[in-house]
Design brief:
Chain lengths: 331, 268
């Protein structure tokens, strides 16, 4: 049976929300996630009208038609260095998710799932503290409605020293409001730390091997969250009337290069660009070395509620923190 | 083809228009042009008397008539300077906008890009009376440049409207120029056809018709100046440059890409 779900993507500006979304389908296609390969998920972008109507209603005239959609544009912008999402609207992307392999029958309905993923500028939901940003009221109202009506929230945070960041106050306020909102439909809340590849830049070709170890990810998350005061408010979200399930994970939209295994940031290019072969253009140039890392994880968990080797609950992180207080794998 | 710009100066009577401004984008560091880490999207400059109810109608997406303003909306040769659109919007206001995407680490940087738009708002009546002047002034002075973070918010967000004085165009001379130029006849015929219709339509020009955007805007100004005030579709008139699709309404569009076709097309 087809199930429709709305997932809101929020987080501070420049945290990597749109990049995470742009890398979603490629991550699923490459199987670059922490789920069992036997799960065999597949995801394809849809047009809004196909999302609104049942897929069985697709007209024969449209059967073989292809027009470039919003998601393809997002992917192309991402390949060209990215475009900061503006604050003038919120932007919806639509997908059809299927699970073609083995899945725990107790956990998963047969699907497919039609996903509406709402992307928005970080300045709307998590504005920088102390900076007055004029945002049109109707955009704020629209995002607030979407947050209250959605089944899942994916919160994207850049993997930095959280206590130094200038958006902590706004983030805490957002979580507080979600906790106390009686009308919310929230079932899952995923916190994803982006830019994960940057932790491994000194490890060269060993980077991917270390990144693929869930124990490393769990340790990184424990350390990142150690002094995060907003974390306690998030616990309340899980506690209230059995509310939403909260998970933590890591991801990298740039990922690690195929074959060479190093973090996929080319130090010889201005800005932040992925490695690409000189003189090669088009899709092949963009994809030759690109292997995103775990960017599907937050969306698959948000849609399916199914844990992978890289999604961690409070209890898993709490156990880790108690058992390894002060120890460090990565400097 | 002779440039119509020279004819604009052959006038004697002085007139003026008041221009209110709205800039949307990110503040930048004056020295490097880079966006400081704390800067986000915001209205970075605004005239004091710009009605809040009007601001919502001045977003780049609304002015170009699309749900979203993205880099695809701008033709490749215009990516650096941005696209230009002039059209009448809500509240008896006509907007003239230049919008583009620029790298967050400065003009020649390689970082992700952010939207930067500058909108001028003039009274619809001024636009109808002095379209040639509006377009000529915008061609020379309307740039999608970011504002500086160092400038105080009070100064940026409570600006007094600027007054532009100009020599009023000699309409008879403008009409002479129009009737002698092939593009002039095309434009007049286009507006004539559009008058009896209520659909959107677009007349396209490109680099084979005009050497640059400024010449096109001067020509468009001539054509609009020759329309009478009672022209039934004045509120639908739009002028666009470097925009990958027609602007809404009755649109004169210039494409700096010489590969594009100069033709009359029914807008979507």
């Amino acid at each position: 049976m087809t199930e429709k779900l709305t997932i809101c993507l929020v987080g501070p500006k420049a945290g990597g929300k749109s990049s995470l979304l742009a890398a979603l389908t490629e991550c699923v296609a490459q199987g670059a996630f922490g789920y069992s390969p036997r799960l065999r998920p597949a995801i394809q972008p849809l047009r809004e009208k196909d999302f609104r109507a049942a897929l069985s209603e697709v007209r024969p005239a449209d059967f073989l038609a292809h027009e470039e959609g919003e998601y393809e544009r997002l992917q192309r912008d991402f390949a060209q260095g990215g475009v900061a999402t503006d604050t003038l609207d919120t932007y919806e992307y639509y997908f059809r998710l299927t699970v073609n392999g083995e899945a725990p029958p107790a956990t998963l309905t047969p699907g497919p799932w039609l996903l509406e993923i709402v992307d928005s500028a970080g300045e709307i939901a998590v504005p920088p503290d102390g900076v007055e940003i004029a945002i049109l009221d109707d955009v704020k109202t629209k995002l607030a409605r979407q947050l209250l009506a959605c089944e899942a929230v994916v919160l994207v945070l850049p993997l930095v020293r959280l206590e130094d960041s200038f958006w902590i106050g706004a983030l805490t306020r957002l979580i507080d409001r979600l906790v106390i909102a009686p009308e919310k439909k929230l079932r899952r809340f995923v916190v994803v730390f982006s830019h994960y590849e940057r932790l491994f830049v000194r490890l060269g070709p060993s980077a991917f091997t270390y990144a693929c170890d869930p124990a490393v990810a769990r340790h990184v998350l424990s350390r990142a969250l150690r002094r995060a005061q907003w974390l306690e408010r998030l616990r309340a979200l899980e506690a209230v009337n059995g509310g939403a399930r909260v998970r933590f994970t890591v991801a990298s939209a740039y990922g690690f290069t195929k074959r060479f295994q190093n973090p996929n940031i080319d130090p010889h290019q201005p800005g932040e660009r992925r490695f690409r072969r000189a003189g090669l253009e088009g899709a092949r140039a963009a994809g030759e070395f690109w292997r995103p890392f775990l960017t599907a994880e937050p969306f698959l968990y948000a849609a399916l509620g199914l844990d992978s080797a890289f999604t961690f609950s409070f209890s898993q992180l709490d156990a880790r923190a108690a058992g390894n207080d002060g120890s460090s794998i990565i400097d | 083809m002779s440039s119509p710009v020279s004819a604009i100066t052959s006038t004697v009577v002085e007139a003026a228009i008041d221009v209110r401004r709205l800039h949307y984008g990110k503040l930048v560091d004056a020295a490097t042009g880079a966006v400081p880490s704390q800067s986000g999207y915001e209205v970075t400059r605004r005239s004091l008397d710009l009605e809040p109810s009007l601001v919502g109608h001045l977003s780049p997406a609304r002015l170009i008539g699309r749900r979203r303003f993205d880099p695809d909306a701008i033709e490749t040769p215009a990516l650096r300077s941005g696209c230009f659109v002039a059209r009448t919007t809500a509240g008896d206001a006509t907007a003239l906008m230049r919008a583009r995407f620029r790298p967050e680490d400065g003009e020649n940087g390689g970082a992700r890009r952010h939207q930067q738009s500058s909108v001028w708002v003039v009274a619809f009546d001024d636009w109808r009376r002095f379209p040639a002047a509006c377009l000529a002034i915008a061609a020379s002075h309307l740039r999608a440049d970011p504002d500086f973070a160092a400038e105080s918010a009070v100064d940026r967000l409570a600006e007094t409207p600027s007054r532009w004085r100009f020599q009023r165009l000699d309409v008879d001379r403008a009409r002479d120029v129009l009737l002698r130029a092939s593009w002039g006849c095309d434009m007049l015929e286009f507006f004539l056809d559009a008058a009896s219709s209520d659909t959107a339509s677009c007349l396209d020009f490109d680099a084979r018709d005009f050497a640059n955007e400024r010449d096109f805007l001067a020509a468009a100004g001539f054509a609009l100046q020759s329309l009478s005030a009672s022209y039934p579709r004045w509120r639908d008139v739009s002028v666009a440059c470097g925009l990958a699709h027609p602007a809404p309404g009755v649109c004169l569009r210039y494409s700096p890409d010489h590969e594009s076709q100069g033709s009359l097309s029914e807008a979507a």
